[in-house]
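Task: sequence design from structure.
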């Protein structure tokens, strides 16, 4: 999206209150110190039984209410109908709120909402609602499709769907042409509805890229459902409940790698590279995006597999540790897309009042203007980025450590974790460097 670089590129290395090298050194030191403290003070796994404290009875009753669930479904359908109207009848220009809805509210806003409230997309997904309606008309159960979803397939379809989306946004030549984005969304809806009809709601849990993304991030929220009751629990305890299914490593690699590439693509080095290259920018972007995602997956896989297995099959270890990358993904979404969400999200809300370019103000928001507050306080933004990245990596280290001591033999509980620690140090240093050299 052409507005996105301007919005989330604010706050470079020159705006840091300390030199970039010192910020990277401090972040790495914080990660190493955290690991040292964990090794000394955290010697037994704490999240093998996540538990949780019951939420207030009135809140649990409200959330479990059929009226509440039905209201969320209706909201999802309403937002979808509005988005479809913008896509079909709106103008082929960036003033059409359709682009902001897809690239900002859906892609970024869904992450923030899920981190605060839980699996938002699962609750409002129009695909689940449509599938349920079709199933009831046919006299079948929407949870049960005609076929059983293959366990070996796991999250692989979601990983491919997520890669398809980041490719559209970051590597496709025409990411802001109405026809291109509209076609992508139509293919997504078609595939999801066919999959739901074949495999039931299990398909959405494993294959819908946005539901999988939202549900993974939701594991960092304080909310969970246990024995059909709403409970409050530590985000780290929630995080430990992520199932290590096939394709999980690919999902987190795409999410982390694509965000890293988005930072890299704004760097002067990359701009100079494609200007001087005989290859087209599109070819280079495609190659670089794939390389970043593959590199993230390979580093996580190698770092995990090199830990002492303690009886685990080594090829299974990467997916056992993959949950620890989710806090890093959320951290980089905050660091990289915060200003995009605030500034372009506000623009989208303003444009949503006039979806067809008729001069309307149907929502009463047409006069809204972004404040660009971070533009005037770049050092604050730079500090927010560093803090988000450091917190994300420290939480990731805690999650990985808790999993490691449940897998490793006691004699390997220190040295066995070192390969994965080195990978996280590399992610920390490389991520900060990319963020502040964009």
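Answer:
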């Amino acid at each position: 999206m052409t507005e996105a670089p301007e919005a989330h590129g604010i706050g470079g290395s020159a705006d840091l209150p300390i030199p970039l090298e010192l910020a990277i050194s401090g972040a790495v030191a914080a990660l190493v110190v955290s690991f040292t403290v964990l090794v000394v003070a955290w010697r037994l796994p704490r999240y093998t039984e996540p538990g949780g404290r019951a939420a207030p009875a009135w809140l649990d009753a409200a959330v479990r209410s059929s009226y509440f669930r039905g209201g969320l479904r209706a909201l999802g359908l309403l937002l979808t109908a509005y988005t479809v109207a913008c896509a079909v009848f709106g103008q082929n220009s960036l003033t059409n709120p359709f682009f902001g809805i897809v690239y900002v509210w859906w892609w970024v806003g869904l992450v923030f909402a899920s981190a605060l409230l839980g699996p938002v997309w699962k609750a409002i997904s129009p695909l689940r609602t449509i599938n349920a309606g079709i199933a009831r008309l046919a006299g079948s159960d929407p949870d049960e499709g005609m076929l059983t979803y293959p366990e070996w397939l796991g999250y692989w379809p979601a990983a491919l769907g997520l890669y398809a989306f980041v490719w559209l946004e970051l590597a496709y030549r025409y990411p802001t042409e109405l026809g291109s984005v509209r076609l992508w969304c139509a293919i997504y809806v078609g595939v999801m509805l066919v999959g739901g009809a074949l495999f039931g709601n299990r398909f959405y849990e494993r294959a819908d890229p946005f539901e999988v993304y939202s549900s993974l991030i939701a594991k960092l929220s304080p909310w969970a459902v246990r024995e059909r009751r709403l409970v409050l629990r530590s985000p780290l305890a929630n995080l430990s409940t992520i199932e290590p299914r096939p394709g999980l490593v690919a999902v987190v690699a795409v999410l982390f790698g694509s965000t890293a590439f988005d930072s890299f693509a704004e760097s002067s080095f990359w701009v100079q590279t494609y200007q001087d290259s005989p290859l087209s920018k599109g070819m280079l972007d495609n190659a670089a995006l794939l390389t970043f995602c593959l590199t993230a997956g390979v580093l996580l896989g190698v770092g995990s597999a090199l830990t002492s297995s303690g009886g685990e099959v080594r090829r299974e270890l990467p997916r056992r540790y993959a949950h620890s990358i989710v806090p890093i993904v959320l951290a980089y979404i905050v660091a990289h897309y915060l200003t995009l969400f605030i500034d372009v999200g506000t623009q989208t809300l303003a444009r949503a009042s006039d979806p067809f370019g008729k001069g309307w103000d149907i929502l009463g928001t047409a006069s809204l203007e972004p404040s660009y507050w971070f533009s005037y306080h770049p050092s604050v933004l730079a500090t927010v980025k560093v803090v988000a990245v450091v917190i994300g990596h420290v939480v990731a280290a805690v999650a990985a450590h808790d999993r490691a001591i449940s897998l490793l033999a006691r004699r390997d509980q220190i040295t066995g974790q070192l390969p994965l620690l080195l990978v996280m140090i590399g992610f920390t240093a490389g991520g900060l460097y990319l963020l502040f050299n964009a």
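Residues 1-11 have pLDDT under 50 and may be disordered.
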